[in-house]
Write a structure and sequence with these properties.
Oligomer: single chain
InterPro entries: Mab-21-like_nuc_Trfase, Mab-21_HhH/H2TH-like, MAB21L/cGLR
GO molecular function: 2',3'-cyclic GMP-AMP synthase activity; chromatin binding; double-stranded DNA binding
CATH topology of the largest domain: Beta Polymerase, domain 2
Number of strands: 14
Bound molecules: zinc ion
Strand content: 15-25%
Family: Belongs to the mab-21 family.
Distance between the termini: 46 Å
Length: 387
């Protein structure tokens, strides 16, 4: 067992291709993100922003200490990115896998089997190959085991691993003290080849960010994460799913039709604030109805995808004037409602995939969410001051 572990680690170390951990400063705390708006739309008192920043810094330091501590070899290949909630972090552990071939799973566009083109004996991943396929479930299991071992060595911070959630590609760690932080660690295979055929018509940003930017983005590597595809009532355990989270991050950071939007010497827009509010709306609704099953399948990725489509629909920075944030946000809400009613939310990178199709989410759930959002919209979002 020790030997296997060492081999795995060694492979990690050799295959690390991202030279250093990139930490993106988390957005302010939830209250802060709302108070960043030019007006206080939903009666929230503005937070002390400098305090928010200090805490943010603290979280970041804790996290990077923790990662360095837990596995110095892995740190080099870790890319740290932060999602909407300030106490939730996504960390990708990137493993470069050369000479592989993707076999699309059941015309899904998003799910693939991974095959090695040549499979030399010394390939350290051989032990995860089953019937010629790189087994996603086996690798994820091993990944969990390694992390489990590693956190035993951490004595100065209280860290626990959450139980495995079915279908989740992430290993979730909870740092309990001094403040609860949840860290999703996601194993990702990096492919430095051209993107799969099904993405050819995706990323429709020509009129928004420009054709040149699109070409540059499509030259970047893409990723696969261990995620089971649905197979009737059960799941296909060996599939990997495409991930473009690095591109999404790029687009969000560089989101203007003018190059300088939201930079220190440029104009400010309200795109990011609108996205934050949309995510917050869904999070709050999920909290409110957590005991029911209707909202369980909805996630921030749906909100983000709809938001990207809206950015394409309204590509000009002038549309997203911070003074009009209430109008822009309302447009986001209206657009999301329309997607729910039409049961149509095209994947931003894989246009053949409809994230709101029956296959993923049943009609009843979509109607339920639409009804709740409509209620909030008609009553000036009472849910923003709940919980
Ligand atoms: Zn902007």
């Amino acid at each position: 067992r020790e030997e296997a572990l060492a081999a795995f680690r060694c492979y990690w170390a050799r295959s690390s291709v991202v030279p250093q951990a990139t930490a993106i400063a988390p957005p302010g705390r939830r209250g802060t993100s709302l108070s960043l708006l030019p007006f206080s739309p939903y009666g929230r008192p503005p937070d002390d922003r400098s305090r928010g920043r200090q805490e943010t810094k603290l979280e970041q330091d804790q996290l990077s200490n923790f990662i360095t501590y837990s596995e110095p070899d892995l740190t080099r290949s870790a890319t740290l990115s932060v999602i909407s909630a300030p106490n939730e972090f996504d960390v990708m552990f990137i493993l470069e896998v050369p000479r592989i071939e993707l076999v699309e799973y059941s015309n899904s566009g998003a799910y693939y089997f991974v095959k090695f083109k040549r499979n030399p004996k010394e390939n350290p991943l051989n032990r995860f190959v089953e019937n010629e396929l790189l087994s996603a479930s086996k690798m994820l299991l091993k990944f969990r085991e390694i992390i489990k071992e590693e956190i035993k060595n951490i004595t100065d911070i209280k860290v626990v691993m959450e139980r495995k959630k079915p279908r989740s590609p992430a290993v979730t760690l909870l740092i309990k003290e001094p403040e609860e932080i949840s860290v999703d660690i996601i194993l990702a295979l990096e492919l430095r080849s051209s993107w799969p055929l099904k993405t050819t018509e995706g990323l429709p940003i020509k009129d928004w960010l420009g054709g040149k930017v699109r070409t540059e983005l499509r030259r970047k590597p893409f990723y696969l994460i261990p995620k089971n595809a649905k197979e009737g009532q059960s799941f296909q355990e060996e599939t990997w799913r495409l991930s473009f989270s690095h591109i999404e991050k790029d687009i969000l950071n560089n989101h203007g039709d003018s190059k300088k939007c939201c930079e220190t010497d440029g104009m400010k827009c309200c795109r990011k604030d609108c996205l934050k509010l949309m995510k917050y709306l869904l999070e709050q609704l999920k909290k409110k109805f957590e005991k029911r099953k209707e909202l369980s399948e909805f996630c921030s990725y749906h909100v983000k995808t709809a938001f990207f489509h809206l950015c394409v629909k309204y590509p000009k920075d002038s549309y997203w004037n911070p003074e009009d944030i209430h109008l822009c946000f309302d447009e986001c809400v209206a657009f999301f409602l329309e997607r729910l009613r039409k049961e149509e939310l095209q994947h931003f990178f894989i246009p053949g995939v409809n994230l709101f199709s029956q296959e993923y989410i049943d009609t009843k759930s979509k109607i339920f969410l639409a009804k709740q959002i409509e209620y909030e919209r008609n009553n000036q979002f009472p849910i923003f001051s709940e919980f």
